[in-house]
Amino acid sequence: MVNPVLDELELLETVLNNTASSIMLLKPVRNNTQTIIDFEYLFTNPQILRSMNRQSVAGKCLTEEFPGMAGSELLRAYINVIETGVNFQAEVHMAPLGTPGWAQLYARRAGDSLLVTYFDITDRKKADQLLRENEAWLNGQKEAFQAAMSGQPLVLSLEALAKTITNHTNGQARAAFYMVAPGGKGFQLVAGMPEAGSVDVNGFERGAGPGCWSLPVNIVGGPIIGTLAIYFQQRREPTPRETELAGIIAHAAAIIISLHKESLERSEVEAALRKSEERLKQTVRQKEEFISIASHELKTPVTSIKTYAEALLEIFEENSDEASAVYMHKLNNQVDRLTRLIKDLLDTSNISDGALQLFPEQFNLDELIAERIDEMKGISGIHKIILRAGSVGEVIADKERISQVLANLVGNAVKYSPSGGNVIVCTKGEEEHVIVSVEDNGIGIAAEAQQQLFERFFRVNSVKTRNFSGMGLGLYISLQIIRRHGGDMTVESKEGKGSVFSFTIPKSSIQT
Amino acid sequence: MKKIMIVEDDAGIQDSASLIFRQSDYEVTVFKDGRLLLAGQFEMPDIFLIDKQLPGVDGLELCRHLKQQAPTKHIPVIIMSASPQVSNMAAQAGAEGFIEKPFTIADMRALVKKHTE
Q1: Lowest-pLDDT range, A62-71, A207-216, A451-460?
Q2: What is the nearest CA distance from A358 to chain B, expressed in angstroms?
Q3: Which residues of A touch B10 (CB under 8 A)?
Q4: pLDDT value for A165
Q5: Residue A296 near chain B (CB below 8 Å)
Q6: Which strand (E) or helix (H) includes residue A27?
Q7: Chain B closest-CA separation from residue A330 CA (Å)
Q8: Is the pLDDT at A479 greater than 90, yes or no?
Q9: Angle, to 10 degrees, between the axis of helix A474-484 and the axis of helix A322-352?
Q10: Which of A222, A229, A329, B77 has a C-alpha 20 to 30 A away from that of A191?
Q11: Among A296, A314, A357, beta carbon nearest to B82
C-alpha cells in the first residue's frame, strides 16, 4: 500500500530539486531583545547550492556564509517581510550571495520563516544593457541599415557587443560571428570570441576557419531575420558558455536590428507625411491667396459696372423710358448679388487666414436692427418682416458685421420660405448678453443636415432645396463673425415647419 | 462750381466716376497716379477722391503728403478701396472719409456733398 502523504512529499521534493529556480527557506535569528539580526538556512534546493557554490549550508546562518549580507539592503528587506508580512520582489544584484550577476528575487513569509525564490536574469540584464550601451553605435550605423534595406549587403561591427559580454580584449579573440539574412545577403555581425587570436572575418569567410556553428536570429514571435554563425579556427563544438554568449548576441542583434528597422521605417513614413502635409498646406495657402486676390480684383470692374448701371438707370428714368429702366434695375440687382458673392468669398478667405478683423464701436442695437429691417422690407413682396424688440440698448460690437449677420439670417428666412409668410426678428437683452433670433415658417432643415449647416461651402442637398442657389458661405461667415465677438449661434428647425436661427453676443466683450 | 479731383488708375472707374457727377455742380479732374500731385503741379480742388491702391505712390501715402502741405492740408480727402479694412488706415492717414468699392452712386454723392458743403 502506498502512503499518499509520502507520495506528496516525494513529489514536492522532485519539483524543488528539478525547478530552474533557486529556492530556500530561512528561519529568522533574533537577539535577546527579539530583534531579527540574521537568518538560518532551513532548506535549500540543489540549484541554490550550485549558484552559491556550496555543498551544504544546513544549520548555518546567512551572514556566516556570506559576510557581505551583514547590514545589506537585501537583509533589511528580508527582515521587513517577516515583520510586516508584505512580500518583497525585486531585481537584485547577487554579489552579496556569492554569485556574480542579477536575479529576479521573490521573498514571502511562510509561517514563521521566510521563503526565498530567485532565478538568474543576468543574460537578460546584459542584453538590456547592450541595447542601452549600443544606442550610439546604432545611430552611427544608419547608412549601413539603409543600404541593407535596399538590398545591399550589410556589415556591422559587433566588436563592442562581444566585448561587453566576454570581457575580452581584441588580441584574445579567435572566433567570429557572422550573420546572414534570409536570401544570403544582409547582416554580417563581426565580433570576437574569448580565445586567443584576432578576428579576421574575411579570413573566416574565405574558409580559413574550419569550425562553424550557427543559430537563428529572431525576435520572439517574429520572423527569422537572419542566422548567426560562429566560426572557429579549429574544428570543435562550441563550449556551453560560447553557446550562451552567441544566444545573447543573437538576441541583442535581433532586437537592435528590428528596433532600428522600425524606427527607420517610422522616420521614412513620418518624412513622407511631413512632405505631403507641407504640400497640402502650400496648396491651401495658394488657394486662399488666389481667392483673396481674385475677389479683390473682381471688385474693381464690378465698381464701374455698378456705376454705369446706376447712371443708366437714372438716365432711363429721366427720359421716362420705363421698359429700359426695369431692365436696368434688374441688371443693378444682379450686380449687387455678384458683389455679395465676392464679399463672401473674401470674408471666407480672411477667416481661414485668421485675418477677419472687427472694428468695434458702441451703438444702440435696437436702432440698428430696426433700421436694417426697415431697409430689408422691400426685398420680398410676399413676406412680412416683423420686429419684436425687447429693449437691448447699447452694445460694443462691429456694427457693419452685425448688420451682415442679420441680413444673412433674414435673407435666408425669406429665401427658404418660398410661399411667403412672416419672418419674425426677436431681440432680448440679458444682464451681460443680447440674444437675436430670426424665425421663419419655411421649408425647414432636416435634423441630420443641421450639424453641418455652419460648415464652409455646406449646402443642404435634397429635392426641396435643389432650386435654391448659393455657395454655402453665409452661415459659415455669420457664425465666424459671432464667434469673433465672443458669442455663439444656434439653429432649431423642423422639416416642413420652419427654422429659428439665434445668436448671442456679449454686450461688451470687445474693447473699443 | 465745386472741383473734384479723382486719383484712380483703373480706366473703367475713371470713366464711370465722372458719370456720377455728370449733372451736378461739380467739375471732375482725373489723375491716373499720384506723381503730379506729389510734385504740386495741379489746380486746387475742393475735394480729393483717392484710390488706395495706386501705381507708384500708395493712396494713403499720397493722403499723408497732402495733409502735410500747407496749400492742401485743409482740403478734404476721401479714400476709396475694395478692402473695408482700409477704413481705419485712411482715418489714420488723415483722410476725412472712406468709401468701399463697389459703391452706389447715391452713397458717393452723399459723401462728397457732406465734405464739400
Answers
A1: A207-216
A2: 9
A3: 300-301, 303-304
A4: 46
A5: yes
A6: strand A22-30
A7: 15
A8: yes
A9: 50
A10: A222
A11: A296
